[in-house]
Amino acid sequence: MSLNKNDQRLRRSRQTRVRIAKQRVARLTVFRSNSHIYASVISDDGAKVLASASTAEKGVRADYINGKGGTAAAAAAVGKRIAEKAKAAGIETVAFDRAGYAYHGRVKALAEAAREAGLKF
After folding, report:
1. 97 and which of 11, 27, 33, 52 could share a cystine (Cβ 3.0–4.6 Å)?
2. From CA 93, how far away is CA 121, in angstroms rounded?
3. Shortest CA distance to 49 belongs to which of 101, 94, 111?
4. Looking at residues 76-87, what average pLDDT do you find?
């Protein structure tokens, strides 16, 4: 039985989440679609979302060029926004959960923008 591309990503994602759960720290998780990117800070027990941001939000759409949510610039805007929201919720340190995606392109842009905005991971 061979896994398709998405099943492979989900398998990698599960392995990462097991390691993050042992750290007992909130996690910054990313979901990437072709047209948007979403980021959420989830509590250490996984029970609730503490902060979220995406390119689909009205406030973020103004931050990136031409309304295209599938770009690295848009991902950087989301990274900055999620860091601001997390800090407002009292969260300084998170574990970065890239959800099985390669640390490259939009995922990397989001992570670096969140770090620059003061989130530690």
Report:
1. 27
2. 6
3. 94
4. 94
The two beta strands, 49-54 and 95-97, are: unpaired
pTM of the model: 0.89
Phi, psi of 77 (to 5 degrees): -65, -40
Structure tokens at 69: 């949510």
Q: Which residues contact 98 (CB under 8 A, 6 or more apart)?
A: 16, 30, 107, 111
Q: Tell me the sheet residues that pair with 32.
A: 37
Can you give the three-state secondary structure of 13-40, one letter per residue? HHHHHHHHHHHCCCEEEEEECCCCEEEE
Angstrom distances, CA of residue 113 to CA of 56, 77, 109? 18, 7, 6
Chain segment 24-62, per-residue pLDDT in tens: 999 999 999 998 999 999 998 888 999 999 999 887 887
